[in-house]
Amino acid sequence: MSVLVYVESEEGKFKTASFEAASYAREIAQMLQTQVTAVTFNVEDNSELGNYGVDKVLKVNNDKLKNFNAEAYADVLQQAAVKEESKVIVVSQSANSKYLAPLLAVHLNAGYASNVVALPESTTPFTVKRTAFTNKAFSFTKIETDVKLLGLSKNAFGLKEIKADAAAEDFSPNLNEEDFSVQVTNVDKARDKVTIADAEIVVSAGRGLKGPENWGMIEEMADILGAATACSKPVSDMGWRPHGEHVGQTGKPVASNLYIAIGISGAIQHLAGINSSKVKVVINNDPEAPFFKAADYGVVGDAFEIVPKLNEKLKEFKAKNA
Amino acid sequence: MKILVCISHVPDTTSKINFTDNNTQFDTNGVQFVINPNDEFGLTRAMWFKEKQGATVDVVNVGGPETEPTLRKALAIGADSAIRVNTPATDGFQVAKQLAKVATDGGYDLIIAGRESIDYNGGMVPGMLAALIKANFVNTCINLEVEGTEAKAIREIDGGKESVTTSLPLVIGAQKGLVEESDLRIPNMRGIMQARKKPMNVVEPEEVKVQTEVAKFEKPEPKGAVKLVDPDNLDELINLLHNEAKVI
């Protein structure tokens, strides 16, 4: 009956979003008076999960599962859910979780609610709050199936430290050939860069920067803050920055703690995509830019003067608060 | 190759979102509907397969008669025929079930659906459809090539991309990158005229058990006013972010 949580890792290290998913699973388990079981893939030491309320860990160790594979991982999670008789399964909303969740939902005949932002409003009926219309609204969705699958939005719930056993147990699911009919041939990922998905802080810039050659100061700010860089749609359309950096309604959603927008006017599609960020700062020379209506803090002025000055001050701040 | 492109009929990205009937229904008043942008990237890639590799391209939507203009637009862009499953779309699973029936009946090799719709943002339909028809599945697909029954795709992952090989039948979750924004086609007069004569097949829905249901909608709380900081006093901004917002 335990609440099952899929814990993601990269090279043996857990993802913060998965600690959040575990924290969330823990509180649902409390509502349902049951325990939390985590499933991990190729992670030797799972004790860290005990800080986030995980009672039991099903450890999967299998060389075939070294690379993420949606079908195979969904198959493993299904078998774990059956073994644990789980009625609620929690995943994060990383690219990989979003990939496997609909497959898992069909295999378990589970109703799936994605982009969930809060604990269930009630457990009978099972109603969760999720974002819809690209963050322009919320919907309260009732899940009517026996088994429920929840995709938790990043930063929506936060980390809740609570000690538990995290008692690890080996789990060897049955895998079949069909699980591997999509084969990964190459992974191309910048290792030293913070990704938009993982970032606590995102520094984003728009057309106001006038050209790709002016991004040095944006990257510098990101460096100082340990942030990811992002951009507006026109900037990615013009090829100034890679597509992967485009945030907004048709790009990536951003749910960071801090979003700094430089030279971005704030078109409705852009604002929709970054609305889940907790604190928004805008720097723009046009006081009428719509972004000022959506931001928490604003500076009206020329980005080319403000950003270098701000970078110096941020460096001083970081040096003092290191 | 037979391609099916799933088209979601969604409010234009600039739409103001409002609700009626005690916040239980989306207010369509004054809203312009369009092809879901992620589906349109997929449709445009399908046109490439049609022109370069002689594929046939059908489009499908699950919805009432009011969605037909959106399907006609897809025909005007170049799809060969349209299928409308005559039932309102209620949740991702119900839509996937209806599409699975169409996909199986039509014997499609490649099915393209946007990675998510911009209205309900469920991100469920492509994956569920693949699982239901036991086809291979590549989500957040930003490049796709097909040779015979073999497919090579590139998938966007957090912070990078991943190349995969797989085979048909295949479902992909489409998004920007599969084609560029500048590759999108605006229907010309000839396309629009031809679209009027192309088949619009209306099929009746399957019975599907409800899995999820929207109980009500809510709009976000209106935001407080922005705090403006003088550009000559950036220390104040750092102070606010550190001590008030506590984010640095």
TrEMBL record, chain A:
This is Electron transfer flavoprotein alpha subunit apoprotein. FAD binds at residues 207, 263-270, 284. Keywords: Electron transport, FAD, Flavoprotein, Transport. One of its GO terms (biological process) is fatty acid beta-oxidation using acyl-CoA dehydrogenase. GO terms for molecular function: electron transfer activity; flavin adenine dinucleotide binding. Belongs to the ETF alpha-subunit/FixB family. Residues 3-184 form the Electron transfer flavoprotein alpha/beta-subunit N-terminal domain. The keyword Flavoprotein applies. Pfam families: ETF, ETF_alpha. Binds 1 FAD per dimer. Its cofactor is FAD.
UniProtKB/TrEMBL annotation, chain B:
One of its GO terms (molecular function) is electron transfer activity. Pfam families: ETF. Keywords: Electron transport, Transport. The keyword Ribonucleoprotein does not apply. Residues 23-212 form the Electron transfer flavoprotein alpha/beta-subunit N-terminal domain. SUPFAM superfamilies: Adenine nucleotide alpha hydrolases-like. The keyword Phosphoprotein does not apply. It comes from the Bacteria. Belongs to the ETF beta-subunit/FixA family. PANTHER family: ELECTRON TRANSFER FLAVOPROTEIN BETA-SUBUNIT, ELECTRON TRANSFER FLAVOPROTEIN SUBUNIT BETA. This is Electron transfer flavoprotein subunit beta.
